[in-house]
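Below is one record:
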Amino acid sequence: MLKFLLLLCFAIVILALWMTVRKIVITQRYAAKFHQAKAPLKKPSVSEQQPEREIELESCIVDEYEQQLFDDIAALFFQQDHIVKSAEAAVELQEKILQKMPVTSKTQIRHLDLDEHSIYWSFYDQSLEYYMGKYGMFYTHVDRFGAEHKKEICYSQAS
């Protein structure tokens, strides 16, 4: 009887091992098929690749009269003292100046703390910035030759 029980336990252990091994093999086969289907195609490394084409630098041809127009508008802007006290006035000034500038000009407006406003216009390498703050107005312009022009109007501190 003891031999029969030992033989039965041995058979159960062998059966359990066989089922475990079979399950592991099935899982590995499924995983291999699944990963093979999901794995991207192997591409050559960057160092092995031949350059397909040269990277072309985009060069823009800008008409001189547009550059001159931007500089002239900036000069007129410097001659006038614009006072911006609200966000609506800043947007209005931004639109008014942008209408006069070349078509491809870009603009950005920032509303800062303490009712300060900064308006920035750009045209390729040229820029014009207007800052209206608590302590005064500041103008900065970079012309088509790369020269920077500044104008500051500081308010006196009244205590």
The first helix runs from residue 2 to 38. The mean pLDDT is 82. The domain at 64-154 is CATH 3.30.70 (Alpha-Beta Plaits).
